[in-house]
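[AMINO ACID CHAIN]
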Amino acid sequence: MTIGALKNGDQFQIIGVTLSRETGKRLTDMGFTSGTRGYVVRSALLGDPLQVKILDYDISIRKSEALGVEVELVSEKPESGSKEGE
């Protein structure tokens, strides 16, 4: 499953980035590494871009980039008061 397949509010744990070249490297540098948790805040009308909360910051990610980040679903709604990225 990829971030691009998730719905608003879904929590995830990253398995790995499958993108190559500069885009994959930049995502990895920003914290999209194995074991990191986050959640989908919202998506634009047509699903591109997505707003993702990871490591206590928000990032907008293109759908094409989101499809290159393998994740596992942790839960469907973030728990109030929980900290992502731990």
